[in-house]
TrEMBL record:
GO terms for molecular function: acetolactate decarboxylase activity. Keywords: Acetoin biosynthesis, Decarboxylase, Lyase, Signal. Gene3D superfamilies: 3.30.1330.130, Hypothetical protein, similar to alpha- acetolactate decarboxylase, domain 2 (3.30.1330.80). It comes from Maribacter hydrothermalis. The keyword GTP-binding does not apply. It catalyses: (2S)-2-acetolactate + H(+) = (R)-acetoin + CO2. Pathway: Polyol metabolism; (R,R)-butane-2,3-diol biosynthesis; (R,R)-butane-2,3-diol from pyruvate: step 2/3. This is Alpha-acetolactate decarboxylase. Residues 269-403 form the Formylmethanofuran dehydrogenase subunit E domain. InterPro entries: Acetolactate_a_deCO2ase (IPR005128), FmdEsu_dom (IPR003814).
Length: 436
């Protein structure tokens, strides 16, 4: 029985750490159901930090047309005059709601026709995705290429008289074509109705002609029983952030209160998600696996030294249970590491470092300006986006490749009392918003 309990415990531990496979994340800005009559703009495409391999769609400006980004190329189309449309390329455009995903690699599947309704596209994409092991409860991008017998697509037109291209009582213009060769670009989601899909649909689809002379929102389609190519995002690594910990069961209790903690719990403790918090959590996860290789992390048996970063110190005390007043935690910037963590019963200790060159230099450059309170409000937004992008990298790559964990022989515990470190994450709390 004891062997069975140990096996189950170890299995749970392994299930909560390591990596898993998932599709590239889908992001949204704004929503269909929150647009009011002014169509307030929620994103300027030029502010997207990572435009490589970007696939995206949304209305152009204040309903002046359609936007489709295909593999990092931003197309926008307008139809201000009856029977005519203009398609252009630029990042200097805006949108009231937008859905996007960076997909570097695709997996090709055969999709059998006919495709005669948008609903049929939805059903066949979902069926193939699910049969190939995709989690269709999570949103994903997709593409369909081939020759389509007939398609009808619309381009929205302005609804307000003060917007360029406005025509009374015209909200969109339809365009129909036969024998079209091109790409259907779409996003599938069962939980974004009213956000970027209609209230009765799980997909939002645009059509882009192969020669790039037409693009619009796909409404109708007719095809024969022919074969098409469906492209689904190649699954990528996602990091499991859970850790199993052991604590006492009440204020004067016994050891044995085993529970799971993960990054979401740490975020609530710290106050926000940021790259430093993820660095701290994943780095500690690697070191604690070394200290407790065959079981659960004993937070009554662990002490830690942390770099002074607010993110790292919060990760240290939350994850290990270390506290200064109990001589199980202190802060030092004298070590060339993020942390030094020690298991008390074995005296084993490890340092944790992030590999050099992993973190973009611009984050530290802008971060230094933010600490000195010299960063412009709009640059503060850019810094946040850069940190968010780095966070995404950390959470989609194997932590073993990002951190160096080194054992220290004869580690000396030398607690230092110092309370004048700068809490850098609150210095700009009263900074005005970016108005550009």
């Amino acid at each position: 029985m004891k062997k069975l309990i140990l096996l189950v415990t170890f299995t749970l531990l392994l299930a909560s750490i390591g990596t898993a496979q998932s599709t590239p994340k889908v992001f949204t800005k704004g929503a269909m159901n929150t647009m009011d009559s002014t169509y307030d703009l929620k994103i300027w495409l030029d502010t997207l930090p990572d435009k490589s391999n970007l696939f995206a769609m949304g209305p152009y400006d204040k309903m002046k047309g359609e936007i489709t980004v295909f593999d990092g190329k931003p197309f926008f189309a307008s139809a201000f005059k009856e029977g005519k449309m203009v398609i252009s390329q630029s990042w200097d455009i805006r949108s009231p709601f937008f859905v996007y995903s960076n997909v570097k690699h695709w997996v090709e599947y055969n999709l059998e026709g006919p495709l005669n309704t948008i609903e049929e596209i939805q059903e066949k994409v979902a069926k193939i995705a699910e049969s190939e092991g995709y989690d269709i409860k999570e949103p994903f991008a997709f593409r369909i290429s081939g020759e389509f017998d007939q398609i009808t697509a619309h381009i929205v037109t302005p609804r307000n008289a003060d917007v360029e291209g406005y025509r009374p009582d015209v909200k969109s213009q339809d365009f129909s074509f036969k024998n079209e060769i091109g790409q259907i670009i779409g996003f599938y989601s069962e939980k974004h109705q009213g956000i970027f899909t209609g209230s009765k649909s799980f997909i939002h689809v645009h059509y882009l002609r192969d020669d790039q002379t037409f693009m619009g929102h796909l409404d109708k389609i007719t095809t024969a029983n022919k074969l098409f190519k469906l492209y689904l995002p190649k699954k990528q690594t996602s990091v499991k952030t859970g850790m199993r910990v052991n604590d006492t069961d009440f204020s004067k209790g016994r050891l044995g209160n085993i529970q799971n903690i993960d990054l979401d719990d740490l975020v609530k403790f710290h106050g926000h998600l940021c790259d430093g918090l993820v660095v701290g959590h994943l780095g500690l996860q690697q070191a604690l696996q070394k200290l407790y290789p065959n079981g659960i992390i004993d937070r009554t048996n662990t002490r830690i030294v942390s770099n002074s970063s607010p993110c790292l110190t919060d990760a240290a005390i939350f994850t290990t249970g270390g506290r200064y007043q109990f001589n199980s935690f202190y802060v030092s910037n004298d070590m060339d590491a993020l942390f030094t963590v020690q298991r008390l019963d074995t005296k084993k200790a490890y340092t944790v470092k992030m590999k050099k060159g992993l973190k973009p230099k611009e984050i530290d450059k802008l971060g230094a300006l933010a600490v000195s309170e010299e960063l412009h409000a709009c640059d503060l937004n850019r810094l946040k986006q850069l940190e968010d992008d780095f966070t995404e990298i950390l959470l989609t790559t194997d932590p073993k490749d990002n951190f160096i964990v080194t054992e220290i022989v004869d580690f000396k515990w030398n607690p230092v009392l110092k309370n004048d470190y700068i809490k850098t994450d609150i210095l700009n709390k009263n900074k005005s918003n970016c108005t550009q």
